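ok trying this again, last paste got cut off
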Amino acid sequence: MAVLSPTDVRPSRGGRPRDPSRDGVIRAAILRLLAEVGYGALTMDAVASEAGVGKATIYRRWRTKEDLVVDTVSDLNAVEATPADTGSLEGDLRQMLHSMVGSITGPAGAAVLSLLSTVPHQPALAEAFRAGPLEVWRRSFQQVWERAEQRGEVTAGISATPVGETVSALLVQRWLLTGEPVTEAYADEVLDTVILPLLRAGGATA
């Protein structure tokens, strides 16, 4: 575990060009540290130590701690939230929910939990969440619903209804509020006993 330094802002420097191959290692280190110490105790020097890179490598990428965290949050879930395309709405929703479980229970989910108390006080961070992971998941689910509409599985506009919003709501509630385990088995139960019955009962299925 890196020793935290009080220095978290330095002016950008010149020197060697940025090495893109280190980005993944650095971002993983940022997520680990956020989960362990939170935003307040996070420092640029600690990230460098945790990632096993020189301090200049960090400062070439980000000028301040806020820049570092905002950029990392903006890129969260870009891979996990890739729209599913199994050929059926049920298959797509199941795959999307499983992906969400992986995100919630992984390093990104732990980092997000540590940032929740900070977001209201950091407008740039709040915007990063809205434009980053929240928008990524919204667009991905939207594509799933649109494909289902094109296949004739659901009526048009279902994604904008409370039924459409319910798909991820119970997982997020369990994750953020109750603290109970969020598992693929729970996601399957939500889909089979709540979401699909709601779609049928509300006449949303074509």
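PB: full thing came through this time. The two ends are 55 Å apart (CA to CA).
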